[in-house]
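Cross-posted from the bioinformatics board.
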Amino acid sequence: MTTIHADLEAIQSVRAALLSFAARVYEALPDAEFAVERGAATLDRQEDAARRAVNELTTRLYECHAAAMYGYPVNYYHIQQALWDAEQRLTRILHLRRRFDSAVNAWRSRKYALERATDDDLAAATGYLDRRITALESYYATTLATTALNLGRSGIPWLLPATVGALRLAIGHSNRALGRTAEEVAAAVLSERFGLQEVPFTQPAHGFDRIFRAPGLPVIVVESKASHDGKLRLGQTLAGEQGSPGWNAQQADNMADSASKQWSPANERIGRLVQTLGPENVPVLAVVVNHQAFTADVYQRQPDGAWQVLEAGIDLQQVTVETAAEAAPAAFPQESPAHQPPLPSPWSERNAELPAERREGVPGGAERRG
Amino acid sequence: MDELSTPVLEAARQVEQAWQAAAERWQDETAARFEQEHMQPLADAAVDYIHAARELETILATLRGLAGDLA
């Protein structure tokens, strides 16, 4: 078990314990309230009974006094004694009543504080843990996949299936972990199989998954999806389907807006570039990573909104094998473009050989001339 | 009778155990912040509640004794 994995489990167990605590508190407090009400009712009954006893014995004592005044021989000592006992009992009950009321007030105050803490603090606590868990899972998935891919690139034969292993390990974790692993795998597929070069940017929680470039194409938006059946399923948003011009425009606006969570200096440059190119002209690719079959399909969005398959059924193990065979030991091809082998790239076949003004997605390109 | 304090006490112990186990591995600044800002207020609220519940349980036990005397 890795340290990150252990940390994740420990934090997840705290989160589970907090939720269990909340459930048990919510279950216990009404029962406790019922027990307190039962106690109060018992106290009421006892006080009533004690008061009745005092009243009855007082009445009887007055009757005895009256009879004695009329000269009847009356021994009312036992009534006096019983009244004294009844008054003592009533005093004890009233004393207990004061303690009870005071304790109930204190208990209710603590109960409300506990309810507030359970509602507010616990919600904030689990939110905090959720963010920590998400960060660890993302880091875990990214580290796992990146390590696996880098090991594959380093040409160590027995570590070649590591990419697939990364996917296997991510399965069963959160969708986010699986998604991040699929992103890493998709990035490897596009860079190794299609010869695209990744553009670093501050990846937001919501927005473009990855940005690539190719000769003559400064921005290529990439959406990656992990799928159990290999089907491409894109999110539908108010701005449009992921990858659509409307969606691209919204992401670009957010990335360029310094008030947005998606803003960073690098993101602003990319956002401005998308705005300059025109969101409708920016090429969009989608990579579907099938984590059951360990294959990937690459799609390109067409102007009519259809997704055309560029290549389907890419064997992920084969990708790493090809990479290992092509790469120099311990060297990352994308870091020294001059040493990159000429990879067969449907993308470059479609665009790289064309003059710049005829490439899709280039300012002044064919689609812009209408 | 400890039906007021016991369920909360047991639930709090469970959280405490999970937190102790996590704290052995999670010792960075965010952990300290989490403990200070989230765990401590919750623990304080639980402990205050348990103390108040125990005081009330003592009185309820006395009340039951009193009711038994009168029965």
